[in-house]
Design a protein that fits this description.
- The chain has 89 residues and is an all-alpha fold.
- Helix content is 58%, strand content 0%.
- The longest helix has 35 residues, at 17-51.
- It is elongated and about 110 Å long.
């Protein structure tokens, strides 16, 4: 009988069900509190962003066009270009 009773004794390091459940609930409560705090911070940030005046728009400055249009040179072939480069060297 003692042998059978020894099998059903608690093992060392095993927690009670109530204690384990309370730890689980405490962790869940802490997580819920953290989520609620972050939600409040996010809503406050969004409300502050909506209440702030919009930033002034900056006008883009256009570049002035060149008054004289330069004529485009006709495309030079690669061979001619290479010959001119070797002739200079």
């Amino acid at each position: 009988m003692q042998r059978a009773g020894a099998q059903f004794q608690k093992l060392p390091g095993v927690e009670d069900d109530k204690n384990a459940q309370s730890e689980y609930e405490a962790a869940a409560d802490a997580l819920a509190a953290k989520i609620a705090r972050l939600k409040e911070l996010r809503l406050a940030r969004d409300a502050a962003a909506l209440a702030a005046p919009p930033a002034a728009k900056v006008k883009k400055v256009r570049k002035k066009k060149m008054p004289i249009k330069q004529k485009k040179r006709p495309a030079e072939s690669l061979v001619d270009w290479l010959k001119s480069r070797h002739a200079v060297s």
